[in-house]
DNA sequence: CCCTTTTCACCTAGGTGGTAAGAT
DNA sequence: ATCTTACCACCTAGGTGAAAAGGG
């Protein structure tokens, strides 16, 4: 689907105000989202699957743009996977109101388990082709397949730092490279942001929901070695 | 070694006149050059080995530069590998004066065999990180490992088109991206070119000199499968 | 006869989840 | 008990020269 930004798009530079982004592989994202998407985080950094990819339109073909992503916590909670009674202490086993009921399967589900860890510095990932002309960005699908997620707070590889067992919303930003001298003063007008709710996920160090594991194995080419039984072209 | 450009460096823009490039893996290039370097060309495109890599210095850290390569014919001859008497017709089996005597081994050597084919359009290969700031280019070795050579005159993959059995000199160009309005008028001042004689080579569809083959196998990691006998770290 | 094309086994390089051990 | 780490077999993706087949 198409996702504009949250607040009204007023006061934006002409070079970004008509920018639009369509999420690619939308049906796959939605299939994961129905189950409750999980993304592995490792010390060395792990790619996302599905990969975040968008098709852009409405850019000035001759202007320069920088494309980047960041990840914002969806709430201030820490989660655990299980069945409420597991408890040590004051775990109430209360489903977070923001987690739809359908997240529960087989007697296990995501349960709020306290307040979130203090958030990491909040890194961003620049698309490695940045900067480039609008025409170049619009020519084909823009893929963030070099982006990696890590749980290492001391990471020095430039990866995105996330807390495991916390929920995140990926955000995508189109930034017009303003050639004007004091362009910093217009910075707030020169970018446009996109959030696709179907791309939100839980950061984990190991998959919790077995249906997520199976969908990853079924849809990620690199996990073909774990597929068994009938081939499905 | 270091290689400046041919004609006097006079009249160059300040952003390029101090630029310098050191060829990396120089001793390997020289080892190949002593035997007579050959580079495979294929219809689909083949990488060079050794890869053309340079360490840059003397750029303006804050200015934008484009880096690119092209290949110029070293002479107007066509060559064949063999021993002079093979001949059909007027092959004289005369060693080209520009080919050192050491090119001959084992009763076989490169022989001039007529005039060169008409040259292809003369494509260039832009380093995929272009454009980038001088600081970025100087930070580490710049590698042209995405560059591919083809003998397909109709190639539409943007590869470098060469004639097999012809000799070429790789050239490397540093181009300052001039922000001035009518910068085209200064184009001749805004670049600096480098030629390393030890990187010249013969384009071939299959290796002719067996010593070249052995040196490729010994030094290219992707050819490790053809190494036999003692490992050499 | 000489050169080119195609196919192949064998590599490098790196992305998967499983598994068992480790940490708290 | 729950989460994390390290290692592994098994993939994708693509760069090698050898060998045999193809073409003029």
TrEMBL record, chains A, B:
Main location: nucleus
Entry-linked PANTHER family: T-BOX PROTEIN-RELATED (PTHR11267), T-BOX TRANSCRIPTION FACTOR TBX10 (PTHR11267:SF102)
Record-level GO cellular component terms: chromatin; nucleus
Pfam family for this entry, one: T-box
Keywords on record: DNA-binding, Nucleus, Transcription, Transcription regulation
Location of the protein in the cell: Nucleus
InterPro entries, sorted: p53-like_TF_DNA-bd_sf (IPR008967), T-box_DNA-bd (IPR046360), T-box_sf (IPR036960), TF_T-box (IPR001699), TF_T-box_CS (IPR018186)
Descriptive protein name: TBX10 factor
The keyword Nucleus belongs to this UniProt entry's keyword annotation: yes
Limits of the T-box domain: 23-228
Gene: Tbx10
GO BP term, example: positive regulation of DNA-templated transcription
GO molecular function: DNA-binding transcription factor activity, RNA polymerase II-specific; RNA polymerase II cis-regulatory region sequence-specific DNA binding
Species, as recorded: Acrocephalus arundinaceus
């Amino acid at each position: 689907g198409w996702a504009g930004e949250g607040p009204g798009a007023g006061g934006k530079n002409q070079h970004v105000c008509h920018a639009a982004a369509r999420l690619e592989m939308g049906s796959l994202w939605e299939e994961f989202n129905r189950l409750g998407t999980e993304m592995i985080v490792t010390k060395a950094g792990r790619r996302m699957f599905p990969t975040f990819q968008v098709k852009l339109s409405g850019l000035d073909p001759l202007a320069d743009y920088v494309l980047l992503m960041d990840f914002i916590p969806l709430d201030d909670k820490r989660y655990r996977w299980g069945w409420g009674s597991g408890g040590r202490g004051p775990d109430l086993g209360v489903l977070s109101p923001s987690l739809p009921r359908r997240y529960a399967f087989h007697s296990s589900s995501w349960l709020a388990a306290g307040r979130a860890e203090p958030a990491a510095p909040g890194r961003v990932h620049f698309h490695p082709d940045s900067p480039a002309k609008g025409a170049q960005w619009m020519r084909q699908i823009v893929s963030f397949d070099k982006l990696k997620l890590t749980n290492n707070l001391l990471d020095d590889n430039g990866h995105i730092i996330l807390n495991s067992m916390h929920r995140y919303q990926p955000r995508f930003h189109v930034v017009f490279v303003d050639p004007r001298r004091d362009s910093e003063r217009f910075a707030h007008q020169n970018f446009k942001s996109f959030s696709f709710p179907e791309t939100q996920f839980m950061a984990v160090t190991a998959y919790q929901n077995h249906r997520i594991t199976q969908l990853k194995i079924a849809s990620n080419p690199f996990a073909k070695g774990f597929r068994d039984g009938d081939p499905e072209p």
